[in-house]
Specification:
Layout (H helix, E strand, L loop, with lengths): L16 H12 L6 E5 L6 H13 L13 H4 L7 E5 H4 L2 H10 L10 E6 L6 H12 L5 E7 L7 H4 L3 E4 L5 H15 L5 H10 L4 H12 L7 H7 L5 H12 L3 H13 L4 H21 L8 H18 L5 H10 L15 H11 L2 H17 L11 H13 L3 H17 L4 H5 L2 E5 L3 E6 L2 H9 L1 H12 L4 E6 H16 L14 H22 L8
Parallel strand pairs: 1-4, 1-5, 2-3, 3-4, 7-8
Antiparallel strand pairs: 6-7
Helix pairs in contact: 5-6, 8-9, 9-11, 12-13, 14-15, 15-16
Zinc ion (ZN) binds next to α3.
Length: 539
């Protein structure tokens, strides 16, 4: 279908209006450069545009839409020996570039211009680039180069500086949907509206992928449904995204982990999942702004969530499974206890409503300030960096009355705990419990990245653990080197009879405010149980 519906003039090329208008002007004014470079993601129309442009500059009677598709030059375009296509990805292009240089001085056989279209030009070998550079420095008047690349950074600057550059961007969902609908009508394909939108989503801004998905599904004679698209192409449905948010609102961690596990098994691309989550967040953010009685997560919370989801790509190359990161990130937004859904008459909701009522200019500056503010604010509850001071205090507090008895209990729990929390798998499974008192558990892992990630997510860990074992533990994670060091010091202190004394954690750790909420909620709940809802008004 991609070939069949490949545009044959500028009017059918979608989503690149700015580029097309410049190229049209070049044709209309007969001002053709000697070298162009088209960069951008795959399937965005680079090669198609190159071909239409090549046809147009050789057309005998060009129209406002480029080639006339009627003249001798247009009609013989496909067989025209003056249009030379080279795919640099196939063989590094050395031989083809050499041949190109040998023949370049010869005048075109049939047309005004000899056009060289070099696809994936960044794949050329260094010697091929050097050869190409020589011809670009002094090109014969009858030659036009159109270079295309998905990786502009890999193209030498010496080449770029000799080309007119056009950056193609990803097509919007709307652009793709409209084009799909056109093809669907022409081909008489039976398909649900939702399925069309889904295909546009999965194709991630590339027309070629969108049409190839449609092609594969339409070979089946039945009507194409949303479920078919999702099951064939490992996508995530809007319902699943809504379910994820509902589990957060209802504080249903078990259900949440089930959904994440299922998406992982379906091999849904994690980037697609993040994009979907952020789309949903955008929807909720708008809803929360428009409607003061909005019942979902607070604006503040979804704003933080967006930033932490966007941060995930920074960690992906640490060899940590992206699904784990998404799971951990979202777990941050579950309330700290199982007794109550979040945001019912809490301070947070009040402050969220206050933000809602502020004038819109102020809101915008809020959004722009957000990343900085979040990095420095000690109250930020998502992915909080832990201070060295807090690490030292927790180690100290563990050593106050660490014992083999506590350690044995925690270690046996830990085995069960790590099996239960499958989605946190790699983080927990290679992590050992090395010391425990009645208040603090010290964890150890060889990998520094894992230790940092654990320490950023201690709240989740302690919530999950304490909920399960009815304890009030605080956690701290150390690298094995650091642990060896602390352990040696501890033993030396024991020998010298130096005692550890308990220290308060001075930092405003988020757990404390949660504890207060739990207390308040418990009082409220108990009162409600005794007196009934009508009489009780907690202040
Ligand atoms: Zn023509």
């Amino acid at each position: 279908m991609y070939r069949k519906y490949r545009p044959d003039d500028f009017s059918n090329i979608i989503g690149q209006d700015y580029i097309i208008s410049i190229l049209k002007n070049a044709i209309a004014s007969s001002k053709i450069s000697h070298a162009y470079i088209f960069s951008g993601p795959r399937g965005t129309g680079k090669t198609t545009t190159a071909k239409v442009f090549a046809k147009a500059i050789n057309c005998e009677h060009p129209t406002p839409n480029g080639p006339c598709n009627n003249c001798q030059s247009c009609l013989t375009f496909k067989e025209n020996a003056d249009i030379i296509e080279i795919d640099a990805a196939s063989n590094n292009g050395v031989d083809e570039i050499r041949e190109l240089i040998n023949n370049i001085k010869l005048a075109p056989a049939y047309s005004k211009y000899k056009v060289y279209i070099i696809d994936e030009v960044h794949m050329l070998s260094t010697s091929a680039f050097n050869a190409l550079l020589l011809t670009l420095e002094e090109p014969p008047k009858h030659v036009v180069f159109i270079l295309a690349t998905t990786n502009i950074e890999a193209v030498p600057i010496t080449i770029l500086s000799r080309c007119q550059r056009f950056d193609f961007h990803k097509l919007s969902i709307n652009d793709i949907t409209n084009r799909l609908k056109y093809v669907i009508k022409e081909e008489n394909i039976a398909i649900d509206e939702e399925a069309i939108t889904e295909i546009s989503y999965i194709s991630d801004g590339g027309m070629r992928d969108a049409l190839s998905i449609l092609d594969q599904l339409s070979s089946n004679s039945n009507k194409i449904t949303l479920n078919e698209v999702i099951s064939h192409f490992g996508s995530v449905s809007k319902k699943q995204i809504n379910d994820i948010f509902n589990t957060i609102i209802n504080n249903d961690i078990t259900k949440f982990l089930e959904i994440m596990q299922k998406l992982k098994e379906l091999a849904v691309d994690y980037k697609l999942l993040i994009r979907r989550l952020i789309d949903k967040i955008e929807e909720d953010a708008i809803a929360s702004k428009k409607n003061p009685k909005y019942q979902g997560l607070s604006y503040q919370k979804i704003k933080e969530m967006t930033l932490s989801l966007a941060e995930i790509s920074n960690y992906v190359n640490l060899n940590i499974e992206p699904y784990q990161l998404i799971t951990i990130t979202l777990l941050n937004y579950f309330p700290g206890n199982n007794s109550k859904p979040p945001l019912t008459n809490t301070e947070e909701q009040k402050s969220a409503i206050k933000i809602d009522n502020e004038p819109s200019i102020r809101e915008e500056s809020n959004i722009q300030d957000a990343p900085k503010e979040n990095l420095n604010s000690p109250n930020k509850n998502a992915n909080q960096d832990i201070s060295d001071e807090l690490i030292i205090i927790r180690i100290n507090n563990c050593f106050v009355n660490a014992s083999k008895k506590y350690l044995a209990t925690v270690q046996s729990n830990w085995q069960e705990f790590s099996q239960d929390n499958n989605s946190l798998l790699n983080l927990i499974i290679d992590t050992k419990v090395v010391a425990a008192s009645d208040k603090v558990i010290i964890l150890m892992n060889d990998d520094e990245g894992t230790v940092n990630l654990l320490n950023k997510n201690l709240d989740i860990l302690s919530n999950l653990y304490n909920n399960k074992y009815q304890t009030e533990y605080k956690f701290i994670a150390l690298t094995s080197d650091r642990w060896q060091h602390e352990r040696t010091e501890y033993i030396a202190n024991l020998k010298n009879k130096i005692k550890y004394t308990y220290q308060e954690e001075k930092e405003p750790v988020i757990e404390k405010s949660n504890d207060e909420d739990i207390k308040k909620d418990n009082i409220e709940e108990t009162a409600l149980n005794i007196f009934g809802e009508d009489i009780v008004e907690i202040k």
